[in-house]
Amino acid sequence: MNHAFFNDTGPNRNANVAAQARDRVPDWFGRFVERGGQGG
């Protein structure tokens, strides 16, 4: 797969998807990492 969400030098970069991913990453970590995988 050619994912390049955060790599602004990659040919497959999509600015809209990158912004969505950037906004969702902290929530995901907060829900699944900080709580030991228990979810929200």
Proportion in β-strands: under 5%
Tally of helical runs: 1
The stretches of 5 or more residues where confidence is low (pLDDT under 50) are none
- Shape category: elongated
User: Element order, helices and strands?
Assistant: H
Rg measurement, Å: 13 Å
> What percent of residues adopt helix (DSSP H or I)?
40-55%
Largest sheet: none
Number of strands: 0
Number of domains: 1
Which structural class matches the secondary elements? Answer: mainly alpha
**What's the average pLDDT?**
76
Provide an overview of this structure.
With 40 residues, the chain is an all-alpha fold. The chain has one domain. The chain is 48% helix and 0% strand. The protein is built from one helix and no strands. The chain has one helix at residues 15-33.
